[in-house]
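Late entry, evening session. Most of the bench is empty. Finally got around to the prediction I had been postponing all week. Sequence below, unchanged from the version circulated by S.P.
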Amino acid sequence: MSRIRNFARAVLSAGSTVVFAGVMTLGAAGPAQAGATGSAVIGSFSYELNGVGVKVPVGCFLTHTIKGSGKRITSQFAGVDCAGLAATFSQFCNWRIDFSYADTDNRTYRTSRGATHAECKGNPLRHARPQTLPRYGKACAKFHVNGKLRAVQCHYITK
């Protein structure tokens, strides 16, 4: 048993060294950039569309990615990913994704409202254009279905 344990430790140690060296090599060149990706669970819910009940099962997530440096956002997008049965059966109708920005006191100062899409889609996605924020704080993606907020995912933007 101890041989197996020692072997596993050696493999993990060697793997960590390789990953660390790779990260250091990749991170050594070019201007400082920052980025983050996060997901928020979209709970199961039901809604009515043209008199027909639509049920969204458990297994979907709002994923929000943001890239840039300081207050400069070079890339930002948010979309819905589903796994398992939810990937097969989930359709979102009358959906939209908004991006909102708040200062360090949590006061929202800007919202970029997305278009409401009447078509039903299993993988909604929205990109935001590059921008420079006037303040530090947070950037959030908000997913709405049929007029109701279903998930929010935020990233903090700090010095």
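Two things to note before I forget:
Residues 1-30 form one domain.
The longest strand covers residues 72-82.
Will write this up properly tomorrow.
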